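Dear Dr. H.,

I hope your travels went smoothly. While you were away I took the liberty of generating a structure for the chain from your last submission, since the lab meeting agenda had it listed for discussion. I wanted you to have the full record in hand beforehand rather than looking at slides cold. The sequence, exactly as received, is reproduced here:
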Amino acid sequence: MAYRVRVTEHAEKLLDDLVYYLIFRLRNDQAAVHLFDEIEKIYVRLEENPYQFPKSRDIYLNRLGYQEAVLTDMDYVIVFRIEEDLVYVLGIFHQLENYRQKWT
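The corresponding predicted structure, in token form, is as follows:
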């Protein structure tokens, strides 16, 4: 079964903020490009089978049915939920962040 990935506006804003931080604060263009590459790999895997990723480690988000995909060689995580054949990407966070704090 193929799934369609939908990235929410909130997730796009969070990604824009991350890229801005990497490029303009850390002055690390290479890290920003690498982040985009890793996210693209995760999106492809989400299209193939989003159930390969575990439920969220956050108890609250887990109870709401959210799952997480960790960017393996970076410290970022993509939080998403599955509704039928759609995968909604709700946020992209650094693993040390409090996800719920940035949720709204």
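Two observations you may find useful: The domain at 4-102 is CATH 3.30.2310.20 (YaeB-like fold). The helical segments are 9-25, 29-48, 59-63.

With kind regards,
E. W.
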